[in-house]
Specification:
298 residues, alpha/beta, 8-stranded parallel β-barrel, globular, DNA-binding
Length: 298
DNA sequence: AGCGGTCAAGTTGAT
DNA sequence: ATCAACTTGACCGCT
């Protein structure tokens, strides 16, 4: 298993910055561009430091925050990186991150937020989502990220019709997006059983989140789902794991714990060549604790 | 420096 | 009807 750290650090002094659209809109166009340029440059350099940290700590994957280029596609602020004051330097730094990640075999991934939907019947939402996916793909090309992972979205009262819209919308995606797109089961609407057929038919890899599956079961066993998920991948598969904040019998088990309880990792995963993204609030500490547990187990 | 209100976006389900 | 949750709480204006 290759363990992956998600987006941020708790104690390690590596921070990603952003700005609100309203605060940017108050500035002159010029000042806004200047501020965005600085934020993007800072974030590119933070990404480099994050990847160096992963290399030192033996962490094999890093999920890149979707706000790495703040307010990138918002109508009030949207910009092209090339046209920012430090555009060239920003792109250079991201490309350097890509070279470093490749050299040190650190996989980079994206998980765009909940507003990115291919299942909506509202074409404005779909168009916005595609724009946002294109933005992720642009940064993915610089950094070498090979996964842009999203959920199925809403059911809108009819899951099968919603999935049919997803299927149709896939045809509208650019190659840069399509070659990286993956679908993940969520904890409210779309189970592995819902998504696996679509993934198989459309040639889209399935990211198996076992925590979500435990929160929203579908009759498939974990081992069966694991096998079916593996079969959808044409490269190293990606899985997600987390532990419930207050235990499986506590309130709202979908909330994430600070750490991963080793027993929440399916035994069948332990010897697989897969990337397991660790969704735990204690971030780098959770990775360290889990890595130590895995080493002891050998 | 520290505080509380706010932040672009969609959908769901708990309250 | 409101609100928290979601991959991630951070930003911003005020004191």
């Amino acid at each position: 298993m290759r363990l992956g750290l998600c987006c941020k650090f708790v104690d390690e002094p590596i921070r990603f910055r952003t700005a609100t659209v309203t605060s940017l809109a108050r500035l002159s166009q010029r000042d806004a561009r200047q501020k965005l340029s600085q934020l993007c440059l800072t974030n590119a350099s933070s990404l480099a430091r994050a990847l160096h940290y992963c290399a030192e700590q033996g962490i094999g994957a890093f999920r890149i925050n979707s706000q790495i280029l703040p307010a990138k596609t918002h109508p009030a602020t949207c910009y092209r990186v090339k046209e920012l004051p430090d555009g060239k330097e920003i792109i250079d730094q991201f490309e350097e991150c890509g070279r470093f990640a490749r050299d040190r075999d650190i996989r980079t991934l994206f998980h765009p937020d909940q507003f990115i939907l291919l299942s909506s019947a509202d074409d404005r939402i779909t168009r916005r989502s595609i724009e946002e996916l294109d933005y992720h793909a642009e940064v993915a090309e610089w950094t070498g990220a090979d996964v842009i992972n999203i959920h199925g979205g809403g059911a809108y009262g009819n899951k099968q019709e919603a999935l049919e819209r997803v299927r149709r919308n896939l045809k509208r995606l650019s190659t840069a997006v399509k070659t990286r797109l993956t679908f993940e089961n969520d904890d409210r609407v779309y189970t592995p059983a819902d998504l696996l057929p679509l993934c198989r038919d459309a040639g889209i890899p399935f990211v198996y989140d076992v925590h979500h599956h435990r929160c929203l079961p579908d009759g498939l066993s974990i081992d069966d789902t694991t096998q079916q998920a593996l079969a959808t991948w044409n490269r190293e598969p990606v899985f997600h794991v987390s532990s419930p904040k207050a235990g499986w019998r506590g309130p709202n088990p979908s909330r994430h714990h600070d750490y991963i309880q080793p027993r929440d990792i399916p035994v069948s995963w332990l010897d697989l060549d897969v990337t397991v993204e660790i969704e735990a609030k204690a971030k780098e500490h959770a990775l360290r604790r889990l890595t130590a547990w895995l080493a002891r187990r050998r």
